[in-house]
Amino acid sequence: MSRARITGERVVSPAGGFNPTWQRHVAAYALCEPFLGPGRVLDLGCGVGHSYERLAPRETVGVDVDPQALAGQSRATAVADMRDLPFPDASFGSVVAVQSIEHVPDPERAVAEAARVLEPDGVAVFVTPNRLTLGRPDEVIDPYHFIEFDDKELRRLCEPRFGEVEVLGLFGSERYMELFREERATLDRLLRLDPLRLRRLVPRRMRQRLYDWLLRHFRREDDPRAEAIEPADFELRESGLEAALDVCAVCREPRPPARVSACAWCGAPLGDDAVRLRGRVRCPRCGAATTDPWPTPDELERAYGGWYRPRTGRRFALFGDLILSRTRGLLAKRIDAIAPPGPVLDVGAGDGVLLDALRSRGREALGLERDSRRPDVRDCSLAEVEGEWAAIVFWHSLEHLPDAGDALRHAARLLRPGGVLVIAVPNSDSLQAAAFGDRWLALDLPRHLVHLSRESLVSRLELFGFELERISQLRGGQIAIGWLDGFVCLVPGRLDLYQSLRSRGARNVELSPARRAASLATAVALAPAALAAAAVEVAVGRSGTLYLEARRA
Description:
This protein is an alpha/beta fold. The protein has 2 domains: 3-254, Vaccinia Virus protein VP39 (Rossmann fold), CATH 3.40.50; 311-552, Vaccinia Virus protein VP39 (Rossmann fold, 3-Layer(aba) Sandwich), CATH 3.40.50.150. The protein has helices at residues 19-32, 67-70, 107-117, 131-134, 151-158, 174-192, 204-218, 224-227, 297-304, 320-338, 353-360, 404-414, 431-436, 454-463, 480-490, 497-501, 513-539; strands spanning 41-44, 60-64, 76-79, 92-98, 118-129, 162-172, 234-237, 246-254, 275-277, 280-282, 289-291, 344-347, 365-368, 377-378, 389-395, 415-426, 450-451, 466-472, 545-552. The strands form 3 sheets. It has an 8-stranded mixed beta sheet. The protein has a 7-stranded mixed beta sheet with strand order 14-13-12-15-16-19-18, sandwiched between helices.
């Protein structure tokens, strides 16, 4: 294999001074082997498959996103993303992932998929670099890695999906550590040349190319010490994990994600005639889609976290929060005009902006929210609410509810005769949903638990006796931004408009100033196209957001 093909992305050869890294990977496979059961082994992110023979005599199946890496392997392979495996439930006795989960931005999905395909008594082993020793504890240096773990973080990643998690450390011999310390010293010298960490402004692809060049430049081919390294230079230990080269999680008692068996909107069974999509399943009876697998409470807690609605109250940068405040003011004006006298219930009240706007118009109002921070906002379900209400509002909140299908029934119970129901939800039958598919901004998995079309929403309203008074393709907002975010995400460079629009403390991804600037500049350039696309979908009645007003008879 030519030296030019050697990169920092994957281990493909022991040549070019890469023998220590190669042997470290080989050792990881060999040291994993005693933990595995006798059945088939799924090898996640296997690359060129250099060490699967270490798992013999077990049958192994290699998975990688790169078909070239899988070419020529004398075993079964599958070109697939480890976060969306093409295998049935409980189909493998063991799963191994050696130096691979750090290469995806959401490794919890890879862990969940591993638990899903494991047999009930199966074992999964995840080996990943220890962030405390790999580069810098507070910075991911390797541009091919999205996230890195220490032993405690790896345990926290695995525990939601496994009943038993044992974390070990992979350690090197003194002769290996001599080479490792020299390489760390070289890295430290290079990093000192950039005390302001301006490297974070460099696009990821450029950093990857520079990283590859530096590896090939500083790893000498003719160093006999490097050539002497072998798998026996590595061992697993149970203690001192903060100094380990790699951390290794041995996971037993898989807890596979709960696959939904019934539609969360209409309650119909989801059998073989249901349409299985990535992250959701569409009901053939009502047309609504249910998020699948269904997230656990812990997963939902992490999905919202402190970033989604920060305590500072600042969600969006520039004029975003001001625009939200103005639109809520207009919504309050509309509700006050169409609702009979009486209080208003805002389901999914957020920071209470709509409550303030309603109160300024003389309306009594109460909000429901999962994280209550105000006396006029309760942390409870709609089923627990009593009283009689003049209006109930689901403003981009119905899709977040675990009992969304029953929410309309509760609303019918709570509304006074003549009371108004106001709903704004993403339209799963919109042109933008069709255009961007799994990348559609308003899909928002796993926070959005149901995905509704106009037909599925209207039929449910009619079922509970509501009289539909208005459907608007515009009033629900978030239409042009759906197109704009989708267009920006199609541009190379891992641009992310939505996170770029959020304030610094309200993001859930690391966003360099350069990447944010590139995302915003691209959005400005593509804004005319997004506005044109939004105008077309509004004109044909397939807007990205549905706004409905319905009245209780």
